[in-house]
Design goal:
Layout lengths: L8 E11 L3 H12 L6 E14 L2 E15 L2
Antiparallel strand pairs: 1-3, 2-3
């Protein structure tokens, strides 16, 4: 459940998620892996997308994701 925003202190980290399926899956991977060690994640922002090409075809998708989480005050 979201806490009141006006009483929160936030921290932001930047993560790169990767997937061979899609950009959306790369974002989901970034959030899921980060959630294993970071608690109280609340928001995310995708700042860029990129991918790798192999033999003329896209074979990897990457998403640079900022993840925001609450800091105990």
């Amino acid at each position: 459940m979201f806490r009141e925003v006006n009483s929160m202190v936030w921290k932001c980290i930047e993560i790169v998620g990767q997937s061979s399926e899609s950009f959306a899956k790369a974002v989901q991977n970034a959030v899921a892996e980060t959630g294993k060690t970071v608690k109280d994640m609340q928001w995310f922002e995708v700042t860029s997308f990129r991918g790798a090409i192999q033999e003329g075809k896209v074979n990897q998708f990457q998403a640079v994701v900022k993840i925001f989480f609450g800091v105990e005050s």
